[in-house]
Design goal:
homotetramer, N-(1-d-carboxylethyl)-l-norvaline Dehydrogenase, domain 2, 3-stranded mixed sheet, Rossmann fold, 14 helices, alpha/beta, 6-stranded parallel sheet, elongated, 2 domains, 291 residues
Chain lengths: 291, 291, 291, 291
């Protein structure tokens, strides 16, 4: 397929490269042009403007935050005015439920197709085409995108016809990860202050109750107090929890654990740890305990 | 070995039965005599009093709470005055760090040996000899008990020479489970109010981020809103979180997520759900969201 | 002075009436025209459109929320395009810090003057010209408005030249009130479950530690469990706490007590109590305790 | 009356001195004898042992914590075995509801009379005989003590026949104070980071919503960041919140605001601020905000 791709950060590059490997033709745009050019060797065409990317039957956006997605979609020469009728916008960014709803409405008015398809997986998983895709949108539209999803991920979960459902699931998933980190941080502070070796403790936790890779990955970062460089920045963790809380507020769902995690991330960022890994929450718990 | 076993609830019976299967001689005591008698067919001898059980070189206690362990250990005709010099008390109950410290001191004064060995695993795991044992105590003492642990569990983690370290680890583990339930409950309330099918959501959560059995088990209970009968009663969950918070308070470790979970369990118990499964926390989150 | 007044709810009417009493000429606009007409007997002129009100040298807005203030200020025929150069917009509504900043910027560009002047006081205080005014804006502008403030309030606090400072103070004040209600609610649940008469308890609290009228007013509502009709609706309490948290988030100030209060208000609203008085938080605490 | 007085810290000395001024005969005991001798000039007799103090028809205890009250009441040569039949123990210490219940039961068995009479007021109020006394106990017993209460306080509130009711009220009052401090601390962090002068802010808060002396006193400490020397130590604040939470747990009353305050006090103590004033909670909120 001919595919436009806007946003070639660490995740976007890996995904676009897998699309190319699978034989798709990718026109790539990135604000910092070098990141798009990095894909030329793999066969990508570099777009000089977002509009060039939008002139494809399917266009992915993979950007850092709402504002960036809004800018490339709603602005002058942007998606809504450029994407063809019946063409598809696949939004992979972790954005707000509210923005996803506004995108759905705007694309529908413009007779374009909108699919929300946020992903779970760290950059290594993206590179290995092992992402999990959570897709929301009209059944036929999602089916149309399936070959693309197959090129980049190991499994696609379709959550429903309302695109923003996929964003809600993604935000809830990041909440589950963030709260797991918070709780691990508290538990490690407790046992460390009780004189127990953190690595021994980690082995018990992951060897008995919690064999999931997320526990192993983050537990190791915490046991080693290894928070820099960041795999996923605390400032982004804060952003995602904020989006989860905003969605929860709109749906009238109290989420006290999410509030707690939000306030800890905020304390971390206020104290200068915004660029540390989000597992650095555990350092806050340790400091609060006087460690 | 000749083994005394005090406390034959669901867990105790399964453990004692596996000791018998492995060829050990078990003298079993339970306040309600019928529960001890249930083991006669497996070869156990029924004790008419705790003292009879305590007159063995190794004695297990597996009781519901601090008060019960105190009663059989410190009272008249109880453990401290009956257990032989050099004999071993293996305390498997989930008790407070403080009580475990007092037991360690008292047994040492009485020239007896004390090993704290709480376990992770539900009754099914106990029946299948698949428990995880977390052991704390003098190295030689723990080594002496190892054949017994091998008969009842799949793995033993030795956390240190201070017996109560094992209790601290056990309490922290139950905190991790309880907080996982809290967070799952909030996430399910969010997505359900957002119109997403809870079973589809469960499949995503356990198929992507959290493959650990604990997520599958508790996620299914929550997706099915299946809180009765209890696998582990909310009142016991509250008790364990209380013990974790007491230990944290003594070590000066703030654990806000544990406080939050405590307050939710307390609300559940106050509203009459103390006998529901502790995953019923999710029902509270749903109710708070107006579901 | 010639004064425009937009927004004649309970508070707005009382304030406008006091301006009339003090000899000012008021042109009043309200979406529901009857509320403006109620002031004709007091000497007000009724405006048929917001623009008519905006054609005055000083214009008050007293509206329920950001959206309403935005609509009358930024829309077609609205404040920015109608208010004269050098004329003053006094915004009394409890709005977001962000909107107040945008109003300041927009009015400055349009060579108009903007003063933020939210108030503390319930409708009775407004009627008695006993409000407290918290004013933010250029010194000369605030001085120019002082005679108007004197007509409606007992005291004006000037917080600085940045208008939104006044909004921040107002939001922080509503947070202090809301959190006081939360804490009183928890304390009453505790003593009631301990068998203590709530009225006797109220007398102790207000007779010893907390003589402030706010404690007496809200303590009496809680002791009497008298939450309907609302003096100030829980849904508005939720809105204000949300604005406080948004401001705190933007300034990177963790406010866990505000988060807690937010989540309780949200639970109240989700369960259908949005139209009850915000002191109905105490009913939630009582329910959580099984009362 | 002939009065024994055990515990002559800052509060005890001031109270005992007022009893002497009112013409009562006071036999004073303190572990550090000097503190008792300080009252000799005022007419007190110094007791060489607690038992000497207990040999009076009315005996006050005013001690720092449960353990101290237990030691002088239950130990050898202590209150229970020394106080005469029909004689009265007035317990003014801030102790747990549980200990107060045990004291009530033990004194009743010993045919002695027990009145719980904790007080509100700082040392200055004690010196000025301006304390508020919250009394619990049999009506006739409290009436019998009234002349003593009149000598030391400005008002007595009788909460019921169950002595521990008075302790519950006292603990709930300290919770209200501590949570007020927490909320003020968060509000000050917010406005300070928003560029508002903290003293101007204090004037607004106490000039509008919260005229109560407690707001003035603690607000000034926070605005001045004046946390040493302590008027009331954070470690004692932590102790009292712990007792409140223990009482709440026993009555099954969730108190999330109390949990939050507990965790903050604990963080303060863990980080070495246990000897600062409890209003130092605000310093933690400021630090969390990166101030």
């Amino acid at each position: 397929m001919d595919v436009g791709f806007i946003g070639l950060g660490q995740m976007g590059q890996a995904i676009a490269r897998n699309l190319l490997k699978a034989g798709h033709h990718v026109t790539a745009y990135n604000r910092t042009r070098e990141k798009a050019e990095a894909l030329v060797a793999d066969g990508a065409k570099v777009a000089g403007s977002p509009a060039e990317a939008w002139r494809n039957p399917v266009v992915f956006t993979m950007l850092a935050e709402d504002a960036a997605v809004e800018a490339v979609t709603f602005g002058d020469g942007a998606g809504l005015s450029t994407l063809g009728q019946g063409a598809v916008h696949i939004s992979m960014s972790t954005i707000s439920v509210d923005l996803s709803d506004r995108l759905a409405e705007a694309h529908q008015k413009a007779r374009q197709v909108y699919v929300a398809a946020p992903v779970f997986g760290r950059p290594e998983a993206a590179a290995a085409a092992k992402l999990f895709i959570v897709a929301g949108g009209e059944q036929s539209a999602v089916a149309h995108c399936q070959p693309l999803f197959d090129a980049i991920g190991q499994r696609t979960f379709v959550v429903g016809e309302k695109p923003s459902s996929a964003n809600l699931v993604k935000l809830s998933g990041n909440f589950l990860l963030a709260s797991m980190i918070e709780c691990l941080g508290e538990a490690f502070a407790l046992v460390r202050k009780g004189g127990i070796d953190p690595h021994a403790y980690l082995e018990i936790v992951t060897g008995t109750l919690f064999s999931a890779p997320a526990y192993k990955t983050y537990g190791a970062l915490i046991a080693n107090e290894h928070y820099e460089p960041a795999g996923f920045r605390m400032a982004l963790g804060l952003k995602d929890i904020r989006l989860a809380l905003t969605a929860a507020d709109a749906l009238a769902v109290p989420m006290p654990a999410a509030s707690l995690v939000h306030d800890h991330f905020l304390a971390g960022v206020a104290q200068g740890a915004g660029d540390s890994d989000w597992s650095g929450l555990a350092r806050l718990s340790a400091k609060n305990a006087g460690l």
